Amino acid sequence: MKKQVGIEALAIAVPRKYVDIAELAQARGVDPAKYTSGLGAKEMAVADPGEDSVALAASAAARLIQEQGVDTSRIGMLVVGTETGVDHAKPVASHVQGLLKLPRTMRSFDAQHACYGGTAGLMAASEWIASGAGAGRTALVICSDIARYGLNTAGEPTQGGGAVALLVSEQPDLLALDIGLNGASTQDVYDFWRPSGRREALVDGHYSIGCYLDALSGAYRGWRERALAHEVVRWGDTLPSEQLARILYHVPFCKMARKAHTQLRQCDLEASAATQNATPAEREELAKSTASYEAQVASSLTLNARIGNVYTASLYLALAGLMNAEAAALAGKRIGLLSYGSGCCSEFYSGVVGANAAQRIAKANVEGVLARRERISVAEYERIMNLASDAPEQLAPAPGEFRLKEIREHRRAYVAG
């Protein structure tokens, strides 16, 4: 029997404060619909200097270990996917290992490739386990980032922050991955980047969307070729993508998922013999199917709409949202996942939702995590954004969470709640 490998459980951590996106729009003299309907946003997480990528990663991992009863002695690999690391040499993973007192007898590293880093870590961990090199051990993969573009910028309403911790093992209660079916696409482009020393990213917005959609097409076609060869999907009355119960996308802003889904359907329609007689315009209209989007994508976006962009964690926040909404109904069904990282690399992969997914996601208590946040005014949000990154306010972390306390002689010290 082929070994099953995948995500056993997950947990999330988010900044303690958020701003209402409609209120932000009003403060900027913008019609709120431009942010709420145009971007699909509702709320935006606001991280203060004490809530850096280390603190968020450690908080998510600590929550996962506590809520899911993880045996830390069995963790053989720790990977943190991030594009907002705190040091050019010392990885976030090393901080997490120390803060959580995880085993010294394990491999640990960070994975950086813009928003793709978390998926790179997940694939490294799952393939390590599937190969047998893990020798029965588990892996901890954490996606942790803070999306920051600055006050009064075009990207301001697409900021956010948070972390998702994934336990990867041979007991994939949440999602058993289809190892080996992955499709990937990579290209050297300058669509989004953050030069060393900058807190805010630089982005060529329209070009980046085009790069995302082009990379999605290449990655999806690669997955489809392998999935057809293994008869995971088939050409027939329904398109291959329609045979996936749900499809999750990287979500820099929620409306991007609709663009991505249209592009993915276009890939199938262009290759479908049943639509070869249709004109390109007719195929484009079919690709925009609202029914398909509502059935396959919409239910995964609830958390992203309330937190904002989380870079490497955005896809896995969508996974948490989907499982929180539909885990029981999706048990035994196959879903697809699309990861994209600017620069660029994209990967499409799939997996089967586990029979115990509902119990696992219930333990994660994602609604409770969000309910503990504090809504702040736009003025308070602006005050926080203007704080120096190396001088965190001395606030007590919540029980089980972590905060940056100080930076002394370039050494970062954290405190636990």
UniProtKB/TrEMBL annotation:
It comes from the Bacteria. Gene3D superfamilies: 3.40.47.10. GO terms for biological process: acetyl-CoA metabolic process. The keyword Transferase applies. The keyword Transferase applies. One of its GO terms (molecular function) is hydroxymethylglutaryl-CoA synthase activity. SUPFAM superfamilies: Thiolase-like (SSF53901). Belongs to the thiolase-like superfamily. HMG-CoA synthase family. This is Hydroxymethylglutaryl-CoA synthase. It comes from Melittangium boletus DSM 14713.
